[in-house]
């Protein structure tokens, strides 16, 4: 079963992960530190060194199917404060991001990162990603950025931090690409900046949406088909990784196989879903043109099982145009390994 009609994809817009606000700016800022690099005696947790004013350089992967990153987004100012409740373990970093090369200057954007196992992590849905078909018609797709940053080798004072964000685009623009980030400390915090206090940032939530993790076998059983469309069983296998927002209300699950039966799924309100409308294509019998929408829904019957061992749901493939119709399958997914 070919789940997506073929067309050439070109990403035309990318919204940066660091332009997404994650915390309130209404609270008063705590007093600025005396220096941009706290001493080890006062903040023994390694996560506390991410503090001060940084120049942030972003370099997007160069590929023929990607539009280059706009120059005004390549360098930003990142002002950050960190809070570590214990001498070891997790920390939270609260920051304001400004884009000095954008005219008129937009207001600073708040953001929060979590320091876990030696890295600062950030998983957020992004917007504005589109792809173009062969005839140039634009299609929109959901996308997420999954980022991790750590101190550069040999650096212990937080003055140089770097890492990579992977952008995962769902159907109909299914693809992924990377952007590297380098944070270079340029000085202490500006006392005039109203950075949300990191100690007031809500705690990281362990989301049920992270339960889709590991290798699964998928059995699709025909349920219905209209207007003479064919419908046959489908088997597929793939390995999923899930990433969630720090509030736990939204997650993304990305698959590492080439199967197009169950591509990138987004979790919210207790279900993993996907809905994508593809480019107009010829009807199978050549009688005209049709456009296809594919809707996927998947749930975990045992919400206490993490990772999920069995999942169930359905796929609907809807055709509109000169050859309308609908095909539906049930989904039975079984976890077979990590």
Number of domains: 2
Per DSSP, the total helix count is 0
CATH architecture of the largest domain: Beta Barrel
Which CATH top level class of the largest domain fits? Mainly Beta
Structural class: mainly beta
How are strands sequenced across the largest beta sheet? Answer: 1-2-3-4-5-8-9-10
Shape: globular
Mean pLDDT: 86
**SSE series:** EEEEEEEEEEEEEEEEEEE
Q: What gyration radius follows from the Cα positions, in whole Å?
A: 23 Å
CATH topology-level name of the largest domain: Lipocalin
Strand content: over 45%
* Unreliable runs: 1-41
Share of residues in helices: under 10%
- State the end-to-end CA separation: 26 Å
Question: How many E-type strands?
Answer: 19
Largest sheet: 8 strands, antiparallel, barrel
Structural account:
The chain has 338 residues and is an all-beta fold. The chain folds into 2 domains: 17-200, Lipocalin (Beta Barrel), CATH 2.40.128; 208-337, Lipocalin, CATH 2.40.128. It contains no helices and 19 strands. The strands form 3 sheets. The protein has an 8-stranded antiparallel beta barrel. It has an 8-stranded antiparallel β-barrel with strand order 11-12-13-14-15-17-18-19. Strands 6-7 form a two-stranded antiparallel sheet. The two termini are 26 Å apart.
């Amino acid at each position: 079963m070919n789940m997506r009609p073929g067309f050439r994809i070109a990403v035309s817009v990318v919204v940066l992960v660091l332009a997404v606000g994650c915390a309130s700016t209404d609270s008063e800022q705590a007093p600025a530190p005396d220096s941009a690099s706290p001493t080890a005696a006062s903040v023994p947790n390694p996560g506390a060194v991410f503090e001060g004013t940084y120049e942030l350089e972003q370099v997007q992967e160069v590929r023929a199917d990607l539009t280059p990153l706009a120059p005004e987004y390549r360098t930003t100012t990142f002002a950050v404060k960190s809070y570590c409740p214990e001498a070891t373990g997790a920390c939270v970093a609260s920051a304001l991001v400004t884009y000095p090369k954008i005219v008129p200057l937009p207001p600073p954007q708040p953001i929060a990162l979590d320091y876990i196992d030696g890295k600062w992590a950030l998983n957020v849905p992004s917007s504005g990603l589109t792809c173009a078909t062969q005839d140039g018609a634009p299609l929109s797709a959901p996308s997420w950025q999954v980022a991790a940053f750590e101190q550069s080798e040999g650096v212990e004072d937080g003055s140089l931090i770097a890492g990579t964000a992977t952008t995962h685009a769902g159907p109909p623009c299914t693809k992924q690409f990377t952007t590297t980030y380098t944070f270079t400390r340029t000085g202490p915090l500006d006392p005039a900046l109203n950075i949300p206090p990191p100690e007031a940032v809500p705690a990281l939530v362990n989301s049920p949406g992270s339960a889709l993790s590991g290798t699964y076998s998928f059995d699709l059983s025909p349920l219905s088909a209209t207007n003479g469309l064919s419908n046959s069983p489908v088997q597929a296998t793939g390995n999923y990784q899930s990433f969630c927002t720090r509030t736990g209300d939204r997650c993304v699950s990305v698959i590492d196989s080439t199967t197009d039966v169950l591509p990138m799924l987004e979790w919210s309100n207790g279900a993993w879903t996907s809905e994508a409308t593809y480019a107009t294509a010829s009807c199978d019998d050549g009688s005209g043109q049709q456009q296809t929408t594919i809707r996927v829904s998947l749930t975990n019957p045992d919400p206490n099982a993490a990772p999920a061992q069995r999942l169930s749901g359905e796929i609907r493939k809807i055709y509109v145009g000169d050859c309308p119709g609908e095909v539906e399958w049930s989904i039975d997914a079984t976890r077979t390994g990590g």
